[in-house]
Design goal:
By secondary structure, the chain is an alpha/beta fold. Helices cover 38% and strands 20% of the residues. It has an 8-stranded parallel beta barrel, surrounded by 7 helices. Helix 3 links the parallel strand 4 and strand 5. Bound molecules: ligand PBG. InterPro entries: ALAD (IPR001731), ALAD_AS (IPR030656), Aldolase_TIM (IPR013785).
């Protein structure tokens, strides 16, 4: 048998681990991870979220303990999500800009104890609204401009508490510009905005809504979150948020939207953030627990795919686990 004469043998560069490492194009590192955490009122509480194994709701005291671990593992950024009790919810989300509210107290304490840790706060009405919607409800509609006024107050109260980045996740029109102007007017020129720019009306948020008891009480979020079928519309949203002053741009969810991450990466020079959401987390955990997949490898493969698609940062419930694996 005569062997063919192949000029190109791509396998040459795959022969050894050393060669593979040399030509690796994408690297997942703890530097690029943001760890989301759930906080609630009370003391000595660490409750596992049933649809998100190994994710917990913490009272502030235990959250601080957890953060010591997080910092020790080399993670540098967290995103905070509050569980608000029913009696504090109202249609205007008044509690959301209470200077002594749960988020504001939590941020202040965290920045005292861990000044180097980047704290990112979620700006949206849904945890504070009895309707579970991201805006003020009137006659079954979600009001845009009235909601933006509340979002501005919320963002300012987060900045005052010491947040490094505020992250509007509501998808109201014009909120990035309104928040930027208000922050600047109050002297918070160095507080950045991580814009949830392309946020889809996705079924992958289910476990998160369990965690915060924040599922919409009527209808769905399709009048503000984007149609899952659209791609150009993501660029339209991204372009507006850049114009309005966003510092970082987020695509959410991530895994079913890798094409969007790539399009946005090619479109802008701003950092692109992928939100590896709760449903993506739950799927891997569920299959892992049953022994149907090699969980650690699937986690690394999934997050690497997001970086390969063009994400600079990844917001992921796996952050701590990845930090442990990479250590
Ligand atoms: C709310 C918000 C949601 C998530 C982050 N911020 C839920 C929603 O829009 O209904 C989902 C995150 C996840 O699923 O991990 N503004």
């Amino acid at each position: 048998m005569s062997l063919p004469h192949l000029i190109h043998r791509p396998r040459r560069l795959r022969q050894t681990e050393a060669l593979r490492r040399l030509v690796k194009e994408t690297e997942l590192t703890v530097n690029d991870l943001i760890y989301p955490l759930f906080v609630m009122e009370g003391e000595n509480i660490q409750e596992e979220i049933p649809s998100m194994p190994q994710c917990y709701r913490y009272s502030l005291d235990l959250l601080l303990k957890e953060l010591q671990d997080v910092v020790n593992l080399g993670l540098g950024a967290i995103a905070l999500f509050p569980l608000i009790s029913d009696e504090k919810k109202d249609n205007e989300g008044t509690e959301s800009y209470n200077s002594y509210g749960l988020v504001q107290r939590t941020v202040r304490k965290i920045k005292q104890e861990f000044p180097q840790l980047i704290v990112i706060t979620d700006v949206a009405l849904d945890p504070y609204s009895p309707y579970g919607h991201d805006g003020i409800v009137k006659n079954g509609q979600i009001l845009n401009d009235e909601t933006v006024e509340i979002l501005v107050k919320m963002a300012l109260s987060h900045a005052e508490a010491g947040a490094d980045l505020v992250a509007p996740s509501d998808m109201m029109d014009g909120r990035i510009g309104a928040i930027r102007r208000a922050l600047d007017a109050q002297g918070w020129i160095n507080v950045g905005i991580l814009a949830y720019s392309a946020k889809y009306a996705s079924a992958y948020y289910g476990p998160f809504r369990d965690a915060l008891a924040s599922a919409p009480k009527f209808g769905d979020k399709k009048t503000y979150q984007m149609d899952i079928a659209n791609s150009r519309e993501a660029i339209k949203e991204i372009a507006l948020d850049i114009e309005e002053g966003a510092d970082l741009l987020m695509i959410k969810p991530a895994l079913a939207y890798l094409d969007i991450i790539r399009r946005v990466r090619d479109y802008t020079n701003l950092p692109v953030v992928a939100y590896n959401v709760s449903g993506e987390y739950a799927m891997i955990k569920a299959a892992g627990q049953r022994g149907w997949i090699d969980e650690k490898k699937v986690i690394l493969e999934t997050l690497t795919s997001m970086k390969r698609a063009g994400a600079d940062l990844i917001l992921t419930y796996f952050a701590k686990e990845v930090a442990l694996i990479l250590h």
